[in-house]
Amino acid sequence: MAEQKTKPTEQSVESFLDKITDETVRDDCSVLIRLMKKITGTPPKMWGPSIVGFGKYHYKYDSGHEGDSCITGFSPRKQNITLYLMGGLADHTDLLKKLGKHKTGKGCLYLKKLDDVDMDILEKLIKQSVEFMKKKYPST
User: Topology of 13-136 in CATH?
Assistant: First the structure.
């Protein structure tokens, strides 16, 4: 079985953020840290070289593959800030319509900057994702 690539590291979140050259992105990441910390009740931790994650859950697929992942998190990428909403986004079309400028993947929300979105709606999306994960994986 292949070793899990994205796992918690000892890298400092602060030093990771300090390397972000775009001040707006760095400021947005600081806002996301405060928001996700408030929602999850857990401090930020680096997962792999570029994901700031919060909380942890253990998954096991029918194939036998298992591992750990953060309950929610984000990564400042070249094109956008990627938010990882592990609960998925398919059931949240009403909230997504009200969010503002964004793109989505199955469990990812892509934002250029936080000024483009309604922060109350974003908070609701993150809360609902975290609540879903805590119900699905109660030992988290």
Answer: Aspartate Aminotransferase, domain 1 (3.90.1150)
